[in-house]
Structure formats: C-alpha cells, structure tokens
Model the fold of this input.
Amino acid sequence: MNKVQVIFKRELCGYFATPLAYVFIVIFLVLAAVFTFEVGGFFERGQADLQAFFRWHPWIYLVLIPAISMRLWAEERNSGSIELLLTLPVPLWQAVVGKFLAAWCFAGIALALTFPMWITVNYLGQPDNGVIVAAYIGSWLVAGGFLSIGMCLSAATRNQVIAFVTAALVGFVFLLAGFPLVLDFVRGILPGVIVDAIASLSFLTHFEAISKGVIDLRDLVYFGALIGFWLAATAMVLDLKKAE
Done:
C-alpha cells in the first residue's frame, strides 16, 4: 500500500503543479453557483435546502470529470512515460488505484470548496444537515463513477480528445438509463423487470436516493461495484497495451 500512497501523492501534487487544477475548480464553482441560483431558482423556491444545488451535479460532472480523467493514462502513453511507469517495481493494480484515488481526492477538494453554499442555507434557515451530508457523499460517489469510466477509456487511447469524448458519451449513457423520459419510453416496449434493471444501472437513480438523505447499502454497493469494475477494466486494458 506504500506504493499506492507514493503514486497518490505524485499524481495529486501534479494536478496543482499546472493551471488545470485551478481552472477546473473555478469552472466547477461557477457552474455550481449558476445552476443553483439562476437555473435552479434557489431564492424563488423559498426553501432553505440544497436540492437545487445537488440536482445538477451529475450533469456538471458529465462534462468536467472527463476533463480530469482524459489525461490520466492518455498523457502517459503520448509522452512515452507509461513504459517507464510500467517497468517500475509497482504492481499494475497499485498504479491504477493510486492514480484513481488522486483524481478522486482532487474532485473531492473541488466539491468541498462549495461549503459556502452550505453556510448560506444554514444562515437563511434551518435545513436538514443530515440530508446535505448524504447528498455530498452521493455527489462524491457519482464523481468517482465518472472518473473510473474516464480512466479506463483514457488507458485505451493516447489521444486526450478521444478519451474525453468517449468518457462523456459513456457517462451520458449511464445518466440516460435513469432519465424519466427514457424510462417512460422503454416501459412501453419492454417488461417491467428489464426497465427496473436499466434504471438500476443509472447514476441518477442511486444518486437521487442518497441525496434525499437515505444512504442505502444497495446504493453504496452499486457505486463500489461500478468503480471496481472499471478500475479492473483499466488494468486489463493497460496489460493488453503493455503486451503490444
């Protein structure tokens, strides 16, 4: 695990060594504020809660998280440094986990910087802070899901633009699977069991449950299994590329 920590620290420090980290954080905070106050009608709703804030997180992540994940392996492959990394006495799975945890921690830092929103609703009223904590956890889990998908697709190509586009497309599919319009459409042509199975694969289905303050073990297992699957797929892709 010490090697995981070394890679984690190297990657996390690497984010803040370039303008990318600061640009991402600023854009995330601006988009979160715009969607909360302008699009979400925070003041018009007349309620001291952060439902308008968290509702848009999956859609913001759909665009911003691939911008983080696209460089995780594509940049290493394009620069040729991946060969050096894979020849070091570091198990492949530890390199994958270390990189993922660094990116996930960075996303968590950006999310934590939205704390003024939390302070604002507590100043304006008496919100259910337990629900807000649960929603923050759910939001971070969604970010981890998007990151794991993007990381795998980044490992499959040396082109960061391709990694970004494919990660956004796959992430969009995972969002659409739980979108009410999509479910209403497939409900008319498919059995209910299949419709429920499709909905269970969606980020939205599990995130909405957690954001209501209900942290169900099934939702945690879903995100854990999803992240684990895509990290394992990343290791397999890298192993295949190493053999080429």
Notes: The mean pLDDT is 83. The longest helix spans residues 129-155. The two ends are 28 Å apart (CA to CA).
